[in-house]
Amino acid sequence: MSFVEYSEFIQEGDVAIIFLGHESMMAVNVQHGAQTQTRYGVIRHSTDLIGQRFGSKVTCSKGGWVYVLHPTPELWTLNLPHRTQILYTTDIANITLMLELKPGSVVCESGTGSGSLSHAIIRTIAPTGHLHTVEFHAQRAERAAEEFCRHKVAHLVTVRNQDVCKDGFGVTGVADAVFLDIPSPWEAICHAKRAIKKQGGRLCSFSPCIEQVQRTCEAMLDQGFEEVCTLEVLLRVQDVRSVTMSLPDFGPDDLTDPAQATSDPAPSNASVTLKTAIPPKEMAGHTGYLTFATKTRE
Amino acid sequence: MANDGDDPDAAFRVRNGDYVVLKRGDVYKSVQIQSKRKVVFEKQWFFLDNAVGQLYGTTFEVESGGTLKPQAPKGTQNAKEAGTDNRNIVDDGRSQKLTKDDIESLKEKGLKGQEIIQHLIDNSTTFRDKTEFAQEKYIKKKKKKYESSITILKPTARILALMYHGREWGKVCHLRYDTLAQMLTLGNIRAGSKVIVFETCAGLVLGAVMERLGGYGTVIQMYPGGGPTRAGMESFGFPPHFHDTLYEFPLCKMNALLGGKLDLESKDMDTNHSSGSPDESSDRIEDPSESGPREEASPLTQEMETSSEVPGVKVDEEDRKERERRREMKVRSKSINSEKKLKMEEKRRKLALAAAQLEGRNADGLVIASRFHPCPVLLGLLKFLSPSRPFVVYCQYREPLIECYTKLREQGGVVNLHLSDSWLRHYQVLPNRTHPVLLMSGGGGYLLTGTTVAMDAPKTSGQPKTEEPSAKRMKLQEAEGSA
């Protein structure tokens, strides 16, 4: 198992995603002798997981069953241990496309946070690209580096424990794209510019507050970035449902024929059942503003 | 990136034959650089010959005669005087002293856009009274109208998705760029994967998938009718080795492939059959749109030496030898037909290769975005995926995806099903004037995503459902109901 390559069978040391049912999942580190408790009973790694095919059904001790899935950056995003607020797949997808990431891209990112975006970037730029990720919190940087190792992507990423606003990304003129998710992105725009290749590249800043966006845009324009563009994207999930709607009873339609009216009363419980999709009562209405810009050739 | 030759920027220069994107403001157009070829863009015509040898990202001024001249970095125009509000500005249509004819004559004199705008400002009686913000807006508007500069860019999925969404919405089934972004990410499209693509989005989705594969892995394009549509993919200008990763398979042969009855010999038989009337056969072969249905209709299945169960590459190699032998014989007898036969051989060879890729039923990803009803396509193509792999289906409409969702729930073999669409809003960010852009896209289409899982043995043999423990089924339904 690796986050940049599928394998067929589950092995010792892998991360596996246990799918418990609608909207319920958990990530486990597969180890000989280990056990995982679920609401359907115990999963014994040695017998239930190791050697099984990813995607297969596993019967738990209480007789219920679950599916074991191969990890992907998207499943990881939903199941990772949160050390910070994380970026979710909808924003990540747009960041990836708008930063023009592809195999071979060199990317700088700060902060690393819980590594949600990092995993998605690494997946896209493998096998020839590289991610330089900067995190000012020492323990978070360490934990992220450990995760990259366990997920077999360490060769594609360099984690640096420093403050991007003061010390930059630790590399100069190598990046095709830079991503910022920090409290004061405007202080790091000059470092972003320095990190990007002289042929130019793309920049993205993620900020929850419009005041941050305002200052960041100003800094981008001051530093000569072009095509500055701010957008917001939200995922609207639709729940597929079978709904039943009653039909009203208008009474008999032919009043001139009292015989019919009495003999054939309209059924009072008439209804129509249809398949539809409804929005949830509540949804994430704001994650953050994404500001993109282009650095043109020097 | 590696530099070739003496010029460190060689890889960043426009070459003849390159596919490039022209940009002016927010408008894009994809073209191929061809010498002495007239290009029309934003009501202007010009030749791209002068762009050859220039760096990507260069902005050009269109000069008289349609020649391009690289533009020096522009200076910004600063307003010197400005009003505080618009209380003194009256819309009487007399604020601009220059008439339309005056402006035309300025243009004829060969004045540049910038100079014309300066004339307009000098002859505007209200410009000085406008607020600084309004002045900025005025200049921006006039720039759009009179500046004739274009920028030449290297195509990317981002730019082409923006271009198609902006200019040829209908051609890409109304697929919005952020929805394409979701598809590529949720489909886990990455280097080394084997991805099945079925799209009628001009080849944009195919190209975007190939960009993410970066020349590593395999794409099998399923196509309806006579041949695959690839204009959008060609616009990416991929290096030749990318095309080696691309296979194509006609949907009309899917039943045959699934039933293990794909007959890779029928074409040859056909040729033998119709060799008596070369005119007729040549007509058929030259029109690819006809060959699809014809193949399907061909009842000739006598040559059984190629079973679809045999690993594909071997089939192909044996095939080729056999075909070569046969071809040699035929070439001697009928030289007129040889070229057409070669073409046909090529087509059949491709079919065999694609079939071999599909037969393993071990694809890593499935991406569907078409004008066809997604349900049969999805149910058919899911069979070619390994377990624990993501799939994404795009549809402009919601209802067909609801149907897909319902069918998949009945049939099983998938988990993590989600029906969604996305909402996208752009912002104007300016000092003290930050707000959402007045117009926004009303919708970018719908996505159904999910993950394949192993089918239970009895399920695969035709009887879906009824297999799951009833207690669990109820629990699951309950969970859904409360979710």
Automatic annotation (TrEMBL), chain A:
<dbReference type="GO" id="GO:0160107">
    <property type="term" value="F:tRNA (adenine(58)-N1)-methyltransferase activity"/>
</dbReference>
<dbReference type="InterPro" id="IPR049470">
    <property type="entry name" value="TRM61_C"/>
</dbReference>
<comment type="subunit">
    <text>Heterotetramer; composed of two copies of TRMT6 and two copies of TRMT61A.</text>
</comment>
<keyword id="KW-0489">Methyltransferase</keyword>
<dbReference type="GO" id="GO:0030488">
    <property type="term" value="P:tRNA methylation"/>
</dbReference>
<feature type="binding site">
    <location>
        <position position="181"/>
    </location>
    <ligand>
        <name>S-adenosyl-L-methionine</name>
    </ligand>
</feature>
<feature type="binding site">
    <location>
        <position position="163"/>
    </location>
    <ligand>
        <name>S-adenosyl-L-methionine</name>
    </ligand>
</feature>
<keyword id="KW-0819">tRNA processing</keyword>
<dbReference type="GO" id="GO:0031515">
    <property type="term" value="C:tRNA (m1A) methyltransferase complex"/>
</dbReference>
<protein>
    <recommendedName>
        <fullName>tRNA (adenine(58)-N(1))-methyltransferase catalytic subunit TRMT61A</fullName>
        <ecNumber>2.1.1.220</ecNumber>
    </recommendedName>
</protein>
<feature type="binding site">
    <location>
        <begin position="114"/>
        <end position="117"/>
    </location>
    <ligand>
        <name>S-adenosyl-L-methionine</name>
    </ligand>
</feature>
<keyword id="KW-0007">Acetylation</keyword>
<dbReference type="InterPro" id="IPR014816">
    <property type="entry name" value="tRNA_MeTrfase_Gcd14"/>
</dbReference>
<dbReference type="GO" id="GO:0005634">
    <property type="term" value="C:nucleus"/>
</dbReference>
<dbReference type="InterPro" id="IPR029063">
    <property type="entry name" value="SAM-dependent_MTases_sf"/>
</dbReference>
<comment type="function">
    <text>Catalytic subunit of tRNA (adenine-N(1)-)-methyltransferase, which catalyzes the formation of N(1)-methyladenine at position 58 (m1A58) in initiator methionyl-tRNA. Catalytic subunit of mRNA N(1)-methyltransferase complex, which mediates methylation of adenosine residues at the N(1) position of a small subset of mRNAs: N(1) methylation takes place in tRNA T-loop-like structures of mRNAs and is only present at low stoichiometries.</text>
</comment>
<comment type="similarity">
    <text>Belongs to the class I-like SAM-binding methyltransferase superfamily. TRM61 family.</text>
</comment>
<feature type="domain" description="tRNA (adenine(58)-N(1))-methyltransferase catalytic subunit TRM61 C-terminal">
    <location>
        <begin position="64"/>
        <end position="295"/>
    </location>
</feature>
<feature type="region of interest" description="Disordered">
    <location>
        <begin position="249"/>
        <end position="272"/>
    </location>
</feature>
<keyword id="KW-0539">Nucleus</keyword>
<feature type="binding site">
    <location>
        <position position="135"/>
    </location>
    <ligand>
        <name>S-adenosyl-L-methionine</name>
    </ligand>
</feature>
<dbReference type="Pfam" id="PF08704">
    <property type="entry name" value="GCD14"/>
</dbReference>
Automatic annotation (TrEMBL), chain B:
<feature type="region of interest" description="Disordered">
    <location>
        <begin position="457"/>
        <end position="483"/>
    </location>
</feature>
<feature type="compositionally biased region" description="Polar residues">
    <location>
        <begin position="299"/>
        <end position="309"/>
    </location>
</feature>
<feature type="compositionally biased region" description="Basic and acidic residues">
    <location>
        <begin position="82"/>
        <end position="94"/>
    </location>
</feature>
<comment type="subunit">
    <text>Heterotetramer.</text>
</comment>
<feature type="compositionally biased region" description="Basic and acidic residues">
    <location>
        <begin position="314"/>
        <end position="339"/>
    </location>
</feature>
<feature type="region of interest" description="Disordered">
    <location>
        <begin position="66"/>
        <end position="94"/>
    </location>
</feature>
<dbReference type="GO" id="GO:0030488">
    <property type="term" value="P:tRNA methylation"/>
</dbReference>
<keyword id="KW-0819">tRNA processing</keyword>
<comment type="function">
    <text>Substrate-binding subunit of tRNA (adenine-N1-)-methyltransferase, which catalyzes the formation of N1-methyladenine at position 58 (m1A58) in initiator methionyl-tRNA.</text>
</comment>
<dbReference type="GO" id="GO:0005634">
    <property type="term" value="C:nucleus"/>
</dbReference>
<feature type="compositionally biased region" description="Basic and acidic residues">
    <location>
        <begin position="281"/>
        <end position="297"/>
    </location>
</feature>
<keyword id="KW-0539">Nucleus</keyword>
<dbReference type="InterPro" id="IPR017423">
    <property type="entry name" value="TRM6"/>
</dbReference>
<feature type="compositionally biased region" description="Basic and acidic residues">
    <location>
        <begin position="465"/>
        <end position="483"/>
    </location>
</feature>
<comment type="similarity">
    <text>Belongs to the TRM6/GCD10 family.</text>
</comment>
<dbReference type="Pfam" id="PF04189">
    <property type="entry name" value="Gcd10p"/>
</dbReference>
<feature type="region of interest" description="Disordered">
    <location>
        <begin position="267"/>
        <end position="339"/>
    </location>
</feature>
<dbReference type="GO" id="GO:0031515">
    <property type="term" value="C:tRNA (m1A) methyltransferase complex"/>
</dbReference>
<protein>
    <recommendedName>
        <fullName>tRNA (adenine(58)-N(1))-methyltransferase non-catalytic subunit TRM6</fullName>
    </recommendedName>
</protein>
